[in-house]
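User: I'm new to structure prediction. If I give you an amino acid sequence, what do you actually give back? Let's try with this one:
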Amino acid sequence: MSRRLTTITTLLCTAMAVSGCGGIVSGDQPSATAPHGEPAASELVGLWQVEADGLETDTWVQIGSSFSPMSLTVWSQDCTQSGMWRARAGTLLTQVDSWSGTCDGPETPWLENATRFTTSGQNVILTDAAGQETARLTIDGAPPPNPDIADEFRQQPELTEEQRAEIDTPVEPLPGGVEPATVEDVLGRWVPMEEYSTEPYLEVSEDGAWSGSDGCNHVGGRWALATDGSLLTVSGAQTLIGCEGHDFGAPMAQAAWLVVEGERLRFYGDEGQVLDEATRA
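Assistant: Good question. You get back a string of structure tokens that encode the predicted 3D arrangement of the chain. For your 281 residues, that looks like this:
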């Protein structure tokens, strides 16, 4: 099955699975604030029209949904793109990894380059690492109908109070005396504490990408450190070939903090527990 067809099938199946669901509350919630005065991650949830330089067609983005709160869908003319998002402490991380229609790949520089978000009234402002605005998200209209995509993806997403609380739940701080790693600390290649003939590894790059292998299966995605030093990651699909090795995909997906002490990298969970360790290659 092609990547485009897989995307359409996934969207349709997901929408069918939630038809008739009840118990949801309106997405029109009071403005929330995260610790340190940053906007809460749930402030990003919504169906937004995108205003950005270089856009030649009307574009919308749906961030979050009641059945997949951490998914996003970008609409523009006959192109639909899908991916994932994470946010914490005013920091935004996204990845577009599938598409359908007339587009031949990700066409969202205004989203891919955004690393921070703020709110202005009912609008959301996305900015890049230099503080320059990449896009302004406004509540205005809806994408045109698409016969291949369920209408749920053209509407304001409605999350339960529990889903919003989960999105906005802050991570537990690191144990006393333990400091979060900086970007410079974690860059480079890391390997397991014990040796394997399959040579598993984790590579963390300055451009915001990470990749790795357990010795047989490759995995990768994007990463960022939030303003509070905590870790945000998104990842793509991974094959499931069995072999002797060490999987770094799981700790990268589950870790809330990275800590580097000397040549050792530790992955800390959101309750302050050590999930895994690695050593610099």
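You can read the tokens as a compact description of the fold. Here is one thing that stands out. Residues 183-280 form a domain with the Lipocalin fold (CATH 2.40.128.270).
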